[in-house]
Specification:
The chain folds into two domains: 179 residues, Rossmann fold (3-Layer(aba) Sandwich); 74 residues, 2-Layer Sandwich (Alpha-Beta Plaits). The protein contains nine helices and twelve strands. It starts with 15 loop residues before the first helix and ends with a helix. Helix 4 packs across helix 5. With 270 residues, it is an alpha/beta fold. Strands 5-4-3-2-1-10-11-12 form an eight-stranded mixed β-sheet, sandwiched between helices. A four-stranded antiparallel β-sheet has the order 6-7-9-8, with helices on one face. The protein is 37% helix and 22% strand.
């Protein structure tokens, strides 16, 4: 495990160039970032301090966005804030100002996705495993399995023989397996789109899992290209991915410290 980057709450004096940016955007993941990871995905709720800070920031900044692997309708219900750009299914769905925009290519491969998902459900189901069809993608959660290690092993074995799986994108996250159509859509794609369409000159991105590493890597690239100033933050928790730490500038310890930082940012932004 690489040495984690420094804790952001101890480095706030170094963010003056971000806070003073004329077009600052803030983008955050949901699960494990502004909501505690819970055994049942349907029980997830936004952290109160983060909700208050994001609501205030959304009324003053050009962009505040929640970027998640959940379906956009799901995360909208859980966050429940106005003036937020909601990005679902890792950049396939965008909801803002009453309008839903779905990337046209995101529905490609739906038949293959469903076939593989149903095969896994038939061959790898076990007590406590949760199966979630999100339309554009599908997730298998094994956090509540009686034996997590056995559940993952069974999923891996079934995945190796699932029909058409070679035509899908397969991702392992924190106690979950996700299948997506091969569209190339990632949170990195989503963050680049947000920067471009909202004409941002600075970005803060905060996330906790493997897929958030795509956004952090994209942010590093945009900074190196001179397109934006940026701060990429990894939220530490159970089984923090090494790739996430490698792509981050700073860390925060869990959902509560994310709330603390967003509260500070709310107070610091002019």
């Amino acid at each position: 495990m690489p040495v984690p980057p420094p804790n952001l709450l101890l480095q706030l004096d170094g963010l003056s160039h971000i806070v003073s940016s004329s077009r600052l955007g803030v983008a955050v993941d949901f699960d494990g970032t502004i909501s505690k990871i819970v055994a049942e995905p349907d029980a997830a709720a936004i952290w109160p301090e983060s909700a208050t800070a994001l609501s205030h920031l959304a009324s003053r900044l050009p962009l505040v966005s929640v970027v998640t692997g959940r379906a956009v309708s799901d995360v909208m219900d859980r966050v429940g804030l106005d003036k937020i750009v909601y990005v679902g299914n890792h950049g396939a769905e965008y909801f803002f100002d009453g309008r839903l925009d779905v990337v046209p290519s995101s529905s490609e491969g739906r038949d293959a996705l469903l076939a593989a998902f149903e095969y896994l459900r038939t061959h790898a189901d076990s007590p406590g495993v949760i199966w979630e069809d999100k339309g554009i993608s599908a997730s298998v959660h094994y956090r509540t399995a009686r034996d997590r290690k056995a559940a993952r092993s069974t999923l891996e074995a079934a995945l190796a023989s699932a029909p058409g799986v070679e035509r899908l994108e397969v991702f392992w996250g924190k106690m979950l397996l996700e299948l997506r159509a091969p569209t190339g859509l990632t949170k990195g794609y989503a963050l680049r789109r947000l920067v471009r369409e909202w004409d941002l000159d600075a970005v803060v991105f905060i996330g906790d899992d493997t897929t958030d590493g795509d956004a952090l890597s994209a942010l590093k690239e945009m900074v190196s290209e001179g397109r934006v100033s940026g701060v990429g933050v990894a939220v530490l928790g159970e089984d923090t991915p090494e790739a996430l730490l490698a792509a981050a500038d700073y860390t925060l310890e869990g959902v509560s410290e994310v709330g603390d930082f967003l509260t500070w940012l709310d107070e610091a932004v002019p």
